[in-house]
Amino acid sequence: MARIDVSLHDVGNLDTDRVFFVPIVRFDNFVGVRSRPELDALVQQSGVSIHTLDALLQALDKEFEKAIAAGAVGVKTGLAYQRILDYPKVARHDAEVIFNRVLGRHPLDAPGWAEAKPLQDFVMHQVVQRCKEHRLPLQIHTGIQEGNGNDIRMANPTHLIPLFLEYRDMVFDVFHAGYPYSTEVAVMAKNFASIYPDLCWMHAATEFGSRRILHEWLDTVPANKIFAFGGDYCFIEGAYAHAQMAREDVAVVLAEKVEWGHLTEAEALRCARAILRDNLMRVYEIEKKRRIGPRSDARPKRRL
After folding, report:
1. N or C: where does the chain have the smaller number of CB atoms within 10 Å of the terminal CB?
2. pTM beyond 0.90, yes or no
3. Interval 45-54: pLDDT, tens
């Protein structure tokens, strides 16, 4: 009823109906590992015995291969809730020193994220390299955070610039407009071909802000890079309502662009279709990848 063609499904389940959904996978449990029990959980998940850093990367490879075979179209990281988004390159030896300390630690003695950061930084680069190899966009939570008492400074998307500089031929889907750092996101998206700014969640978070941001982005960033909507709900009514809000915000902004003489009506219609659907379908290669995996034979007719 919301006229959503396909949902990128970030629920940790690769076995999803490919008529309506395509899966997104997370490897934050690999990047953020800080204790022996967490390593044991990765052993259980992957079936790989992990006693060395090499074995951890073998387990990561195995999980990537499983995701590719199941038709995953992208990777998501939400670590901005736990740590700063700064991921410098780290020497393998330095990461291995931290890994060996984690391997022998009791859960109560597990290092904090700051102490474990060199290992996490190293593994994040390994994740990005595998995304690049398999042509999977990397979705990154930036900016506004759910709940109370979070540190917005950790989620500042400008911390990601070293990663963007290193992997210029990747696709980075920068979530939540980096809000309140949306102007910085616009500048980075203009400077880096790899950055795709995303307004997911924003229409529900701030109507005025979403319209202001989209106005600014359309002035600054090529329209074929902008993602104007993502439901970001785990219950269907929220996704339906958010889709209506997003369409209204996009319509208002584009109507103003037409009124001001910045766009023709035909250009505005093409832009709306691109930022609400076609950009994402192209970048994530949805039509090709959604055919992999289980399908439902009974797709209900749309009520337009």
Report:
1. C
2. yes
3. 999 999 999 9
